[in-house]
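step=encode ok
step=design start
structure_in=
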């Protein structure tokens, strides 16, 4: 029964992941279409004008905040898998866990479950599992850099996007990537970004006046498309800087 349940959950995760990628590409296409329509119609907005939707409270989407993630991890996840956290866990291991898992319930449970299967001290196991998540994403980024020519992007293009995401504190506007990485070659930028999303190398977030993603860095508030890492662990891997060799 447990094996069947695990297989069912795995299948659901794969389907959900595929649907999420398809939705991101579709949402990105819609964003591009709206931009083209705006350019063709030359629609002007009076300075200071406020649309009717702006007064609505923003809908928050995405992961747990850090405080929520900490509570979820300590009060639910750790006891569920049989982990006894050390007294100083909030200072000794939590920063590393949060860097790798962020507010993702799935990644938080992955770190805890894997740590519970290891021998040795709880703190050591948790630190090792958090680092393993980041190391796996480093490998994935290296593969994406080396196999890019086969998949439809160059090393320099991908490295430029990763560098821009890191410099943006975790996200970068699509407009900035088009300008700085693709030198305003919009068709090429559109093609590469879609391929990267489909291959799970990056994510796209489209912000509007009534949506707010909780994993979006606070400094990014302007409506539009943003490029981000696929997970907190992937962002931590991006910050390692190995991709700079290809810039």
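sequence_out=
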């Amino acid at each position: 029964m447990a094996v069947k349940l695990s297989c069912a959950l795995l299948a659901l995760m794969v389907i959900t992941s595929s649907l999420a990628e398809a939705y991101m590409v579709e949402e990105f296409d819609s964003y591009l279409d709206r931009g083209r329509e705006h350019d063709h119609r030359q629609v002007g907005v009076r300075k200071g004008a406020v649309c009717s939707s702006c007064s609505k409270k923003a809908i928050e989407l995405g992961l747990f905040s850090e405080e929520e993630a900490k509570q979820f991890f300590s009060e639910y996840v750790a006891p569920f898998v049989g982990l006894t956290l050390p007294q100083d866990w909030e200072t000794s291991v939590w920063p590393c866990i949060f860097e790798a898992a962020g507010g993702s319930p799935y990644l938080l449970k992955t770190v805890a479950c894997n740590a519970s299967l290891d021998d040795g001290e709880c703190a050591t196991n948790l630190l090792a599992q958090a680092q393993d998540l980041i190391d796996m994403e480093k490998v994935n980024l290296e593969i994406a850099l080396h196999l890019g020519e086969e998949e439809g992007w160059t090393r320099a293009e991908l490295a430029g996007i990763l560098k821009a995401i890191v410099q943006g504190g975790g996200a970068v506007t699509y407009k900035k990537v088009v300008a700085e990485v693709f030198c305003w070659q919009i068709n090429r930028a559109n093609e590469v970004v879609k391929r990267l999303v489909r291959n799970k190398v990056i994510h796209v977030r489209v912000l509007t006046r009534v949506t707010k993603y909780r994993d979006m860095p606070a400094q990014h508030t302007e409506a539009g498309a943003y490029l981000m890492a696929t997970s907190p662990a992937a962002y931590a891997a991006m910050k390692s800087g190995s991709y700079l060799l290809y810039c």
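step=design ok
step=annotate ok -> The chain has two domains: 65-146, 152-246.
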